[in-house]
Write a structure and sequence with these properties.
heterodimer, A: about 300 residues, mainly alpha, MetI-like fold, 2 domains, disordered N terminus, B: about 260 residues, alpha/beta, Rossmann fold, 6-stranded mixed beta sheet, 4-stranded antiparallel beta sheet, 10 strands, about 30% helix
Chain lengths: ~300, ~260
C-alpha cells in the first residue's frame, strides 16, 4: 500500500506544470521526480546507443562505425580539428536566416490573415512557394547572386518563409475581435494594442512555426553549405563523404544535434513557459501538451 | 462629464437583413444612470456598440454634448462587457495598466482594493473566479475616470449574492465618480434597483416603448415599496417585458412572467 502510493505520487506530479510540482512535492519526492524525468529520456538514449554498438560489432563493417569510434572521432575533431569553427559558422547562418525568415514570415502572415482580399490574391503564390524544392531555390540563388554568403542566407530564408506565413496566417484569422474592441473602446494606443493585445494571440502560432522552422532551417543550411560554401558543417560533411569517413560524418551530426538540443532547452522551453503564462493557450495549432509536456 | 442625445432612424447589419433597431430616440443627462430593458435580440448591445463607436451609424445620429459622433467618441468612455474580456496573458495589474499606461501603481492598487481584490494584482485572469474577473473589468472601467460608462448585462450568469455585491460596488463607484451611465439589462429588478430612469425597448426592431423615471429613494432594497412600484408599472403597461404594446385584453394570456 505504502509502496504504491509513493510510486503514483511523483508520476502525477511530473505530468503537471513545474510550478505545481514545486508547490506540491516536499524535497525528497521532488528529487525523486527530477530523477524520474531524467531517466525518462536517458533510457531511450541508452537503448539507441547500445543497439548501435551491437549492430556495428555484428556487422564489423567500416561503413558502420561503433559508438566508441564515433566519440573518438568527435573528440579528435573538437580538440585537434577545426570542428568548433565550422559549428559556429553553421550556427550563425542558421540564426541569421531563422531571424530573417521569422520576421518576414510573421509580417506577411499577419497581413494576409488580416486582409481577406490580399489573402486570396496571395494564396496561389503561397502554394507555389511552399512547393518549390529547396534545391531549386538554392541553385537559383547561387546562379543569380553568385557564390556569396548573402545568396546562401537568402536561399535558406526563402525556403522557410512560406511555412511561417501559413501558420501565422491561421493565427491572424482567428484573432479575438472582442479583445481588440476592448483596446479600441479604452483608447489604447495602436502600438500598445499591437504588442499587448494583438501579438500575444499569435505567440502560440509563431512559436509552433519557430519550432518546426529551426529543424527545417538547419537541414537546408547544410545543403547550401555543401553546394556553395567553403566552411560550415555541410561543407565538412561533403569533404568526409569524399573520403568515406563515416565516423566523422556521424561525429559532426551528433555535435550539431547536441547544439539544437541545448537551444531547445535554453531558448524554446523558457519561451514556451513565458507564452503559457496565465495558463493561456490561445487556441493555437497545438494543444497544451506541446508546450508543457516532458522533454 | 457628458450628456447623450440619441436619434437613430434604423440599423441593420446588411441591406438584405431585417432591421435590428427601429426609430429610436432618447436623451441621457449628465451624471444620469439610465437603464435599457428589453427582451433579447432587440439590438440593445448594438445600440451600446454604436455609442461606443464600434458599430457604424447608418441612419440617424448620436450626439455627445451636442457634438455629432463620427468615429471614436469625443469623451472618455468605458465599457463593461457581458464577458469580462480581460487579456489572459496579462496579470490583473497589467490588465488595468493597459487602459491607463501612465497611472501610478498605487492608484491601480487602490482601485483593486475598492472592488475587493486586494493582493490579487499579480494573478492572471485564469486564476480568478468568474465573479472576480468581473470585478477586474469593473475596476478597469472606473480606473480611466470615464465621462460615460456603458454596461452590457455585466451581471448575467453570476450567482445572486455575487451579482448583488457587484451591483453595490458599481453603485458606490458611480456615486463617487458621477459618471453618465447607460446600462443594458433584461432584469427589471436590477434596473429598478440601480437606475434613475429606465427605458423599455420593444422586440426587434427595437424602439422605445416607455420612458419611466424611478422615483424610489436610494438606497433601494427589494422591499414592499419596491415590489409595489414594479407591480404598478407592469399592471399599467402589460406586455412591457416582452417588448409589446398591446391592449389589456390580449395581454391576460401572457402575464405569467412575474
Amino acid at each position: 500500500m505504502r509502496h504504491s502510493q509513493s510510486h503514483v505520487f511523483p508520476e502525477t506530479g511530473v505530468d503537471n506544470t513545474q510550478a505545481a510540482v514545486d508547490k506540491r512535492l516536499d524535497p525528497p519526492s521532488k528529487f525523486k521526480a527530477v530523477l524520474i524525468s531524467l531517466f525518462r529520456w536517458l533510457i531511450p538514449l541508452g537503448v539507441i546507443l547500445l543497439g548501435w554498438q551491437a549492430t556495428s560489432l555484428f556487422l564489423a563493417s567500416d561503413n558502420v562505425p561503433s559508438v566508441v569510434e564515433v566519440f573518438a572521432s568527435l573528440q579528435t575533431h573538437l580538440i585537434h580539428g577545426d570542428m568548433l569553427h565550422h559549428l559556429v559558422v553553421t550556427l550563425l547562418r542558421v540564426a541569421l536566416s531563422f531571424c530573417i525568415a521569422m520576421f518576414f514570415g510573421v509580417m506577411i502572415g499577419i497581413v494576409m490573415g488580416a486582409f481577406p482580399r490580399l489573402n486570396e490574391a496571395g494564396d496561389s503564390l503561397l502554394v507555389i512557394a511552399l512547393n518549390v524544392p529547396a534545391l531549386v531555390t538554392i541553385i537559383l540563388c547561387y546562379v543569380w547572386f553568385g557564390l556569396v554568403e548573402a545568396a546562401a542566407i537568402t536561399a535558406v530564408a526563402i525556403n522557410k518563409i512560406p511555412t511561417v506565413i501559413v501558420m501565422v496566417r491561421e493565427g491572424a484569422r482567428v484573432v479575438d475581435r472582442d479583445l481588440l474592441q476592448v483596446a479600441q473602446v479604452f483608447n489604447v494606443s495602436p502600438l500598445r494594442c499591437f504588442f499587448k493585445v494583438y501579438l500575444p494571440q499569435l505567440y502560440p502560432f509563431i512559436m509552433a512555426s519557430a519550432r518546426s522552422g529551426l529543424s527545417l532551417i538547419w537541414k537546408v543550411v547544410l545543403v547550401v553549405e555543401l553546394l556553395g560554401r567553403s566552411d560550415g558543417v555541410g561543407f565538412q560533411l561533403g569533404t568526409f563523404f569524399h573520403f568515406f569517413d563515416i565516423a566523422s560524418i556521424l561525429a559532426y551530426t551528433l555535435a550539431f544535434a547536441a547544439i539544437i538540443l541545448v537551444i531547445e532547452g535554453l531558448v524554446m522551453r523558457p519561451l514556451d513557459r513565458y507564452i503559457a503564462r496565465g495558463n493561456y493557450n490561445g487556441g493555437g495549432p497545438s494543444d497544451n501538451h506541446r508546450y508543457t509536456g516532458g522533454l | 462629464m457628458v450628456n447623450l442625445n440619441i436619434a437613430i432612424e434604423r440599423k441593420s447589419y446588411a441591406s438584405n437583413m431585417p432591421d435590428v433597431l427601429g426609430p429610436l430616440g432618447f436623451n441621457v443627462a449628465q451624471g444620469e444612470f439610465v437603464s435599457l430593458v428589453g427582451p433579447s435580440g432587440t439590438g440593445k448591445s448594438t445600440l451600446l456598440n454604436m455609442i461606443a463607436g464600434l458599430e457604424s451609424i447608418e441612419a440617424g445620429s448620436i450626439r455627445f454634448n451636442d457634438q455629432l459622433l463620427k468615429g471614436p467618441p469625443p469623451c472618455k468612455l468605458s465599457y463593461i462587457f457581458q464577458q469580462p474580456r480581460l487579456m489572459p496573458w496579462l496579470t490583473v495589474f497589467e490588465n488595468l495598466r493597459l487602459v491607463m499606461p501612465d497611472s501610478a501603481p498605487f492608484e491601480i492598487e487602490k482601485m483593486l482594493d475598492k472592488v475587493g481584490l486586494k493582493g490579487k494584482s499579480d494573478c492572471y485572469p485564469k486564476q480568478l473566479s468568474g465573479g472576480m474577473q468581473r470585478r477586474v473589468s469593473i475596476a478597469r472601467a472606473f480606473l480611466t475616470r470615464p465621462d460615460l460608462l456603458l454596461l452590457d448585462e455585466p451581471f448575467v450568469s453570476l450567482d445572486a449574492p455575487n451579482a448583488q455585491r457587484l451591483r453595490s460596488i458599481l453603485l458606490e463607484l458611480w456615486l463617487e465618480h458621477k459618471t453618465t451611465v447607460v446600462f443594458v439589462t433584461h432584469d427589471l429588478n436590477e434596473a429598478i434597483q440601480l437606475s434613475d430612469r429606465v427605458l423599455f425597448l420593444s422586440s426587434s426592431p427595437g424602439t422605445v416603448l416607455l420612458d419611466k423615471d424611478i422615483d424610489l429613494p436610494r438606497p433601494r432594497i427589494d422591499d414592499v415599496h419596491f415590489q409595489n412600484w414594479k407591480k404598478h408599472l407592469l399592471s399599467q403597461n402589460p406586455g412591457l417585458l416582452e417588448g409589446q404594446v398591446s391592449d389589456v385584453a390580449s395581454e391576460s394570456f401572457s402575464r405569467g412572467f412575474i
